[in-house]
Amino acid sequence: MSRSLRRGAVAAVIIATAPVLAACSAGSGAATLQVKPDSAATTVGSTLKINGITVVTATDGSNEANVVANIANNGQTAETLTSVTVDGTPATLSGPATIPPLGSLLLSGPKQTAALVADLAQTPGQNTTVSFTFANAGSTSVQALVNAGAGQYAGYAPVAPVAPPVTATPTATATATATATATATGAATGAATGKSTAKSTAKASSTR
Fold first, then answer.
1. What would the pLDDT profile of 117-130 be if each residue is shown by its tens digit?
2. Dihedral sign computed on CA atoms, order 123, 124, 126, 132
């Protein structure tokens, strides 16, 4: 094969495998998270790999945000995420963050354990330091991009709590009216009863 043909064949192979290489660089969670290959990723120890690390802001105008990450456990024993911090401020975990052996945890994914930041200082487009601490593997820190909770990140934004139903409280006017009505009714009933008793007594006396 001529040199020019060999160069053409190599170029064709590179072009064909480029999407696969990009997906591999993003990690196994890239398709699930729908994140770009340049999102933060790191490893902890010899068994944990964290892909698709980002911080997703709330859509209600508050400073709340969720730390999002796909944590894969390639070990034979379960691992537990014990804490997450953003710029040194602890995030609140909504539940147990256990990564099963040969399994994964989509942190802050729909219906999964979330890591909520109550007051994020950064805005979408800026970077922030995110730290993860595990029960056995130790800790790691990365620079992660802050994204708005819209579009491909809409499902990872903090969910506003459901407001409890409003219970009507009787007003002073309503209470006073009800009391007056009850008093008037009681008085009328008492008067009617007394009058009826008096008539009955008079009738009995007359009969004698």
1. 999 999 999 999 99
2. positive
Cα–Cα dist 113/95, whole Å: 5
Q: Which two tokens stand for residue 68?
A: 């999002």
Q: Is the pLDDT of residue 22 over 50?
A: no
- Rounded Cα gap, residues 10 and 6, in angstroms: 6
Residue pair 29/72 in contact by the 8 Å Cβ criterion: yes
The pLDDT score that the predictor gives to residue 159 is 84
Burial 22-50 (b: 16+ CB within 10 A, else e): eeeebbebbeebebebebbbbebeebbbb
Residue whose C-alpha is closest to residue 99's, from 74, 130, 116, 67 = 74
How far is it, in rounded angstroms, from Cα 41 to Cα 120? 21
What count of Cα atoms within 13 Å lies in the side-chain half-sphere of residue 147? 26
Is 92 in contact with 120 (CB distance < 8 Å)? no
Do residues 152 and 35 touch, judged by C-beta distance below 8 A?
Answer: yes
DSSP-assigned letters across all residues of 110-134 = TTS--EEESS----TT-EEEEEEEE
Query: Which residues have a Cβ under 8 Å from the Cβ of 185 and sit 6 or more positions away?
Result: none
3-state secondary structure of 200: helix
Decide: pTM greater than 0.85: no
Q: Is 151 left (phi over 0), alpha (psi -120 to 50) or beta?
A: left
